[in-house]
Amino acid sequence: MDLLSKAQKKFSVFKDDQIVAAVALANRVHRHQYLYGASSNKIPFLNHCIEIGMLLAEMGGNATLIAAGILHDTTRYHDLSHEQLVASFGIHVAHLVEEVAKLSYMCKLIRHYNQPSSTYNNELCTMLMAMVDVRAVIIKLADRLDKMNRVEFLLPMERRSKFIKQTLDVIAPLAGRLGLDVWKGRLQDLCFKNLEREEYDELVSKFSETTLESAVSELMQQLNAMGLAYRSLSSRRKSLYGIHNKMKR
Predict the structure, then answer these.
(1) Cα distance between residue 113 and residue 236, in whole Å
(2) CA pair distance 214, 37, nearest whole angstrom
(3) What's the rounded Cα separation, in Å, for the pair 63 and 8?
(4) Which stretches make up the HD domain (predicted)?
(5) Tens digits of per-residue pLDDT, 14-52?
(6) CA quadruple 33, 58, 142, 185: dihedral positive or negative?
(7) What is the pTM assigned to this prediction?
(8) How far apart are CA 191 and CA 172, in angstroms?
């Protein structure tokens, strides 16, 4: 439970009684479960649940959303009824857990029938957003982002490429549709890193934060030398995947 202490230090919402209770239940349900992966890379499923909660807290989620994120897979792995969740956490958390379960099933079907067509994938995004509570989509995005953070350790090669491709074609655009551009960029960059590692590493070296800061500093010096006034200057790096696509055009 060290990760819970870390989460509580970083996000005060993790001290909420509902979230503490959600972590306790997830700990009981997932006690002997690990994210899929080699034995040397076993990651306790509870850690994954708390990481999802931290991602939701990072984007300003409330206690209901975070508790549902932590409990997102409890009904799949445990003989836990909807009524029991309602009794322990209220109708709103139970509803979101149920919606995430529905969305997980839909994502499984999409992985099986995924087509290499932007029109098809746009239609999938629209369908997913229309069929479930949008908060369940946000939880599922956090679930996928945490898995993508360690995808090279979790999945065998033959499953990994399909998982990454679905993330790039369907899940990342879905984050963009919801206005979660930071998550969209992170998902795209993680896909890019795993699909085209050499190109990714090359862009990392070219567009490091130090390089951007140096460029801003040089521009400020030139403006000062020319006597041109400015209020402030800052830099914001596009996603490396976005830069990569622009360079290919």
Answers:
(1) 37
(2) 41
(3) 13
(4) 45-148
(5) 999 999 999 999 999 998 888 875 555 678 899 999 999
(6) negative
(7) 0.83
(8) 9
Q: In the chain, which residues fall in CATH 1.10.3210.10?
A: 2-195
The one-letter code for the residue type at 60 is G
Q: Which CATH class is domain 2-195?
A: mainly alpha
